[in-house]
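Our consortium's second objective concerns turning raw sequence data into structural hypotheses that experimental partners can test. To show how far this objective has progressed, the report includes one record in full. It was chosen at random from the queue rather than selected for favorable results. The single chain below, 461 residues long, was entered without modification.
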Amino acid sequence: MTNTAHAVNRTSAIDPTIWRVVGTPLVAATRPGPLSGMGVAVKDLYAVAGQRVGAGNPTYLADAPVQEHSAPAVQRLLDSGADVIGIARTDEFAYSLAGVNAHYGTPPNPRAPGRVPGGSSSGPASAVAAGQAAIGLGTDTAGSIRIPSAYQGLWGLRTTHGRISREGIHPLSSSFDTVGWMTRDVQTMDAVTQAMLPDRDSAALSGEVAVCVLPRQMVDADVAEAFARSCERMRNTTADTHHHTKAAANTAADAATGAGEDSAVTDTAVTADTAGTATAKAAAKAATKATARNGTWDELSLDADMFDGFLDIFSVVRGYEAWQANGDWVSGHMDAIAPDIAGRFRNDALINEAAYRRGLERLEQARAMVRSLIGNKVLLMPTAATVAPTLAQQDDTETAAYTRQQTMRLTSLAGIGGLPALNMPIATAQGLPCGVCLIGPAGSDKALVAFGKELRRRLSA
């Protein structure tokens, strides 16, 4: 892999809506490695040696101490040969999916000018999309890697919850926070994934694919059409090459697996009952119904109420943990926080411990159900419910709230499951970026990226 393939555009003026601080580089690689020649934009939640963590808020930044050591995730990139170009913007306290920051402005969306960049890993995403960095290091709690990747036409990986240390990262919700990264192409995504995850995958892929069938009201028509068109093309090319696709994914990830050989298309329904009220035993039965096929390409119908149940769990657990992590500082600085972010924290402060404990119990049940449902398949679903809203749409409070709700319904499945999720960029008929989200079993991160790489090759054939 040559350095020229990852050359970045650093000649233009520094955009303060993208970058908080930059260097030449800001932190040099510790040694040559597989990522030599690649520059990293680090989300302003990570500890970077010699720098402060600002968390998207200038008042918080002013009070923050200088970090003595880089977060393990940052250090691993440096040890793999990458340079840290700079620290890039985040939505305030990572508590948004739009990419808007009231204090520093909204980073541009180079792939869809005049539209929001997506967040909360907005700065790293815009830096990568603009060619100013090869790698965007971010976090994903409710979709903060997947959404900016979908909005800006990037590859983006949310890793399995807990697989990479979150030490040195400003927290939002420990039950959902994960490390992730974004790149412009799948080859770089694969290289970064291999470097960041040197251990073997703990789960293999069966080679089976389940296409998520959603109620029409959950996804805008232009995104739904792009998703269906891409899945149909991938299904047609995969049907004749199932063994090669599966072997490519698991061999590249250094994992062993087995799968059935016959091809079929089936339709299995999962309703709110199987998601919200089933015992672990009943959930396992539902998952068995969904996966006990020898086919390589199934359809899986999911009920809208199931996603609403996921959101309810998520809002309680995430909300309580967000206040526990940030409440001491936030409660004394409400006037220094954007109104929408402050409003979320005020709601979080009302969640009591008893409600949180019940939420954790529901999360445990729902997580077991989702993992049983996925099994060793790859689930495909739209990454976001819409294309990136225009700046005018985002300024409309009602429209912004609706878009956030619709998008979080989709992103909640991987979050509740604690599963790896990969955005594969596609486009609508009008040429606007959107995404196919590949969700795999816990611990299958490297195989999932390799599988996505193979699907992209077939989609482009």
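The partners drew two points from this record. The chain has 15 helices and twelve strands. Residues 304-331 form the longest helix (28 residues). Both points have been shared with the crystallography group to help prioritize constructs.
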